[in-house]
Amino acid sequence: MKRQWYEKMGAAVLGCLLLAACSAEPEGRGDIAGESLDTAVVAEREARYESPSDDGGDSQVLFGDLHVHTTFSPDAFIMSLPLTGGSGLHPPADACDFARYCAALDFWSINDHAEGITPRRWAETRQSIRECNAAAGDSANPDMVSFLGWEWSQVATDPSKHYGHKNVIFLDTDDADVPARAIAAPRQRLAQAPMGRLAQLMMSLADFENREFYLGIQGYYDEIADTPVCEKDVDTRELPGDCLEVADDPRELFTKLDEWGFDSIVIPHGNSWGMNTPASTSFDKQLNRAQHDPDRQILFELYSGHGNSEEYRQWRASVKGDDGGLMCPEPSDDYMPCCYRAGQIIRERCEAAGEDAQECQRRDFEARQNFVDAGNSGHLTVPGQSVVDWLNCGTCVDCFNEPMDHRPAATAQYALAISGFEPGRDPLRFRYGFIGSSDNHRGQPGTGYKEVRRKFMTESFGAPEDSRAARRQRDTREPEPFSTPLGNENVSLVNARNMERQNSFWLTGGLVATHSAGRDRNAIWGSLKRREVYATSGARILLWFDLLRDEQRYPMGSELMTGEAPKFRVSAMGEFKQLPGCPDYASNGLGEARIESLCGGECYNPGDERQLIDRIEVVRIRPQVNATEDVADLIEDPWRVFECEPDPMGCTVEFTDETFTSGGREAIYYARAIQETTGMINAENVRCEYDEEGRCIEVNPCYGDFRTPAEEDCVAPAQQRAWSSPIFVDFQPALEEESL
């Protein structure tokens, strides 16, 4: 019997390979299961978001997620592999149901990676978003608004050519009012599946119940490969609808969006996330009139499941040497470059192998440079390395939930502090509002509502047992006492980035909150365009930040000129503490089975008790007035700190900048509302053990695979927070004063 089985499987393998039949039907958009929520449910939610005073004016706070991937995205598709801990396919319909019933969002947008959005997938995405809106009830007062968009993801190993990731979202959803194609960034190996047909077939046999998923991998990539790339230097409106359109840089992306002429917003994100960002990347190259569109690029995703891109620091992961090339910097008291740690690892191995001190020092220096030269794949220059070897290198030890390998010159604070100087032109500055979102790749908008189920609510992934799939994520080479330069033979789609270490840095994700005049699409869009928005780390903290002048309030996001000392007011209220499980309307709307499979049995389910606001911090940034000013001297963080009384009704403070007029220059202000300490998944990332001198001597990583039990959530104490959008105040003598 066993022999017959092997013969049958052998025939299946041979037939599959010879006929290239290792494929299954392509994934569709799915079916939306839930209907619109009862108006009483929506009204009760709105009541929880109201200010107890008149601080909010006529607006209401709404919460959303403007960064959501489904398995239409190539990386999300591969991350969904059941053998590596994924939960299977999650098409756009799943995202709609999750946003409405699991996360109880007021709005969201779909942002699949454009390089994987074939003509069929773009058509199905548009249709699914329209269906989600149709299920929202009255369009003037919907239970939820769904926006259409994509992600333009430009990644380069050369820092001077790396522009990063930008989400593009649109006001409208009708075919006549949106681009006919998504616009992608160029990607090498775009249509190449990360495993061959034989590997896919073997995986389907190993996980026979989910065999169609593995057989569909090649079909997924074949669909991309079969889509021709659009002709260059042609007006985007004149291109055929069945090609893949590519924009090489932001300038070209903005030009194509101008040609379409539709109302859109472009949101940079994941900016300081080192796993995909070269070490010496800086926002300076984007602050010019070619690569920046001040009318579209008006929001900055400050916080997501990839980490916090707010805080600037002076240290760098690599620096320019005397010859103009990159080299490894020395460590400081608060930062260990990973290139320096690579040298330490090799030196320790060299000494243990009995080599003399001079030779071990040479290998140390060689390892540092090999790491720098390898860019984001530097870990592969240390043979047989593992997560524990790197200790806490690359981390910002005094930052809040920073991403892996934090890049300070790509942070929000740095972007606001720099200026673009062009001969004969006024200085150019970024005018960003702040948002948070999830960057979720499982069709789960707004996952930050509860810090539970790490393997479900974050991007953490890995095989649940010690299997071949689990070992593929690890470096199985011998731990040699010398470094090896990076070669093509060492790099694959699986190990090019240190995904094993990244599992200790995945977070549940953030939210964007709007101060909106209503629940409808145009009201929410208006708030986004005015930058009257704020970011949260996932908690539904209520926050108001206003400049007060002449009995008027100028809300967050405002720009104005004055010759007087500006006066401000900040008000904040903590989030409601969560109850376990899901509210009745969610269970009734989706059914218990789908609640369990889609929401993991846990939904946004607020009780009646609020978390307390611990303090309010204010940051002041004075943008450069000449290119020689050191950015570090221009960022005051925190500039003011106000301790709050333990009042469940929140905290309100007022303050004036008495030094503004004497400074005679622009100042940018934003507020942080810091909540009392609670637990957050991966808030201590690699979980260091420190010696008496404060040095990290051992780590306890939060693995994605079986080495960390699935039920362990790696929760650590942290303080959830909300960040207001800035208020931009330029100096003008009192006699010439006027509001913008």
Automatic annotation (TrEMBL):
Residues 460-489 are annotated as: Disordered. It holds the Pfam family DUF3604. InterPro entries: DUF3604, Pol/histidinol_Pase-like. Residues 465-480 have a biased composition (Basic and acidic residues). This is DUF3604 domain-containing protein. It comes from Halioglobus maricola.
